[in-house]
Amino acid sequence: MRPQPLISVTDVARSSRFYQELLGCQSGHGGEEYERLLSDGTLVLQLHAFDIEHHHGSIGDASSRPYGNGLALWFEIEDFDAAVRRADALGAEVVLPPHRNPPDGPGGPAHRELWLRDPDGYLVVLASPDGESPWPDPRVG
Questions:
Q1: Model confidence pLDDT, tens digit, residues 83-110
Q2: SS3 (DSSP) at 108
Q3: Helix (H, G, I), strand (E, B) or coil at 12
Q4: Taking all residues of the chain, what is their mean pLDDT, rounded to a whole number?
Q5: Could you check whether 1-64 and 67-141 share the same CATH topology?
Q6: Hey, CA dihedral for 98, 42, 118, 122, is it positive or negative?
Q7: What is the pTM of this model?
Q8: Which CATH number fits domain 1-64: 3.30.70.330, 3.30.210.10, 3.30.720.120, 2.30.30.30?
């Protein structure tokens, strides 16, 4: 099984540019109504315009805010530090700055996370690979 998340957005082209820059992925479709974003040829995210119904009808209600309430788009990123720099360059709204999970002590995924918002307000989490941030950190001290 491979997840293929799809979110409705207000501006497909804008969201495509945001995610391509943030995730370092590529357009696999392009357009104003629908986009497929690929990483090394693998589909990682689909974007669909709220106001386009195609053959399946409406996907979401653009008047219902906040978009994605209770949803986090979570991406494991190999080069976490580079992803943080890309998010900063985009001026993305930061919800939680880079931090270790768990913040203190062993256990958990032992990775770093950055929580932010995309242009439509969806919660996006970038995480380093599990175990990337051991406790205690051998790089400190």
A1: 999 999 999 999 999 999 999 888 899 9
A2: coil
A3: helix
A4: 92
A5: yes
A6: negative
A7: 0.90
A8: 3.30.720.120
